[in-house]
Amino acid sequence: MSVNTTEEPFPSGWHRAFIVLWLGCFITGMGYSMTMPFISLFINELGHLTRFQLNIYSGLAFAATFISQAIVSPYWGNLADTKGRKLMCLRASGVMAITIFVTGLSTGAWMIIFMRLLQGAFSGYINNATALIAGETPHRKSGWVMSTMMTAGVSGNLVGPLLGGALSDAFGYRIPFFITGGLMFLTFLFTLFLVEEHFTPIKKEEMKPMQELLHLIPNIKIIYAMFITTLIVQASVMSIDPIVSLYVRDMIGNHNNLAFIAGVVAAAPGLGNLLSASKVGHVMDRVGPEKVLMIGLTIATLLFVPMALTHSPWWLACWRFILGLASAGLLPAAQTILTLDVPQEAFGRIFSYNQSFQAAGSVFGALLGSLVSGLFSYPMVFWLTGLTLLINLLIVYINRTKQVA
Question: What is the pTM of this model?
Answer without folding.
Answer: 0.70
